[in-house]
Amino acid sequence: MRIIKAREIAETVAKLSLKANCSLRPDVLEKIRLAFKKESDKRAKAALESIIKNAGIARREKLAICQDTGLPIVFIDIGQDVSIKGDLKKAINRGIALGYRKGSFRESIVRDPLARSKPGYEGVVIHTEITRGNKIKITVMPKGFGCENKSLLKMFLPTAGTGQIKKFIIDAVKSAGPDACPPYIVGVGIGGTADYASLLAKKALLKRKGTVPYLEKVLLKELNQLKIGPMGLGGKSTCLAINIETCPTHIAGLPVAVNISCHALRSATKIL
Amino acid sequence: MKKVFSSTIKNLSAGDEIKFSGIIYTARDQAHKRLVKDIGRGRGIGRNFKIKDAVIYYCGPTKAPKGKIIGSCGPTTSSRMDEFTPFLLKRGLKAMIGKGRRSKEVIAAIKKYKGVYFLAPAGCGALVSKYVKKVKPAAYPDLGPEQILMLEVKNLPLIVGIDSKGRSIYGKD
Predict the structure, then answer these.
(1) Catalytic annotation on B32?
(2) pLDDT at B1
């Protein structure tokens, strides 16, 4: 049994939260650069240029890429041969508070969603998974709410065709329109239950590639014909990528969840 | 342009790119809810903020890191403020800065009260911070990141989203 101290987890979470918020993921930046190269619309090109410039300033000056430093989501995969010494949940929340304070990030979490009192750092969303081995994999994903607000879930009939699912995904992006900081990265979860499809959609945003390439390719092409474009001002670059994740589901259903990310898709991972 | 004068606003068309210099006030969800309540009841908002001729920026910045006056400070989604906006325009709000579409009601009110709605570089909060020259608390400090701040900006690049004739850069949907 390998022992990992909760304190080490807190320190790792703190570091990852700083990295995720200030250094845009290299794969995301690469996609934005590629879109910039391909874009011919003058205004869209200028908007993409600003996005690239913004990422540079954030990285160099350790400023948050976006003022919405999100509701931090922490994915933690714990090897079954690991024993954690200390309080894991507390450690994760402390790590976020530590990192967010150090980075001067925004306090965006209200403890009570109804009373909506003064916001703070506490109330991180944590997803744990038990895996094989004796390591812990931690991912911090600060998810902005401009795009999180555009999330959708639909429970399709099991007899529904791919066409209906495609339309649902395209309509989700259309309805986000220019509001949630396009060009988007679209995460889709298909299968499982209502809650699990939603989680898969979010996890799809962490992947470098989806798992249903034939569908992703067609959808990406169609999404980029919507001409929403960077800042919603037209152009070719409406979506940078679409990743679909699937899992087994019930004979009576076909849950489909869409989780949209703005161009500032942020996450950072470390294995302990 | 130095200040948003009514005469300047009249000459702006949807799609125009401008550089804005002057005073703007951050206000987002909770500040809007409170502004409408307080102004409706005839309460003062504080010495540093008047709705008459104000330019409101939909923004909740990150805290100022050491050695800086402000953190990342890009625009938030404007449509969340739609239900409060016609009332504020009626009470003298002149211009808004944000990102994304506005409701039919807001477009009609912009036309009626001869206001203007600008788009700021969306998702580029670090970049926008470079145009902020001064920051001063203006109202509702208890709202934390949602408090109203007075920002002095210089040459902030904006695009006219909806002009005083009610024309939108996004067309008619």
Answers:
(1) yes
(2) 44
Q: What is the CATH number of domain B6-162?
A: 3.20.130.10
Domain boundaries, chain A: 2-24+65-143, 146-265
Do A179 and B61 lie within an 8 Å CB cutoff?
no
Could you count the other beta carbons within 10 Å of the beta carbon of residue A161? Answer: 10
Q: Determine whether the interchain pair A116/B76 forms a contact, defined as Cβ–Cβ distance below 8 Å.
A: no
Query: Could you read off the pLDDT of A93-103 as tens digits, one per residue?
Result: 999 999 999 99
Mutate to test the interface with A, among B28, B69, B124, B151 (most CBs of A within 10 A): B124
* Amino acid type, B3: K
Indicate the pTM of the whole model. Answer: 0.95
Could you say which of A43, A62, A67 has the minimum Cβ distance to residue B60?
Answer: A67
pLDDT band at B47 (very low <50, low <70, confident <90, very high): confident
Domain boundaries, chain B: 6-162
State whether A106 and B62 contact (CB < 8 Å): yes
Q: How far is B42 from chain A (nearest CA, A)?
A: 24
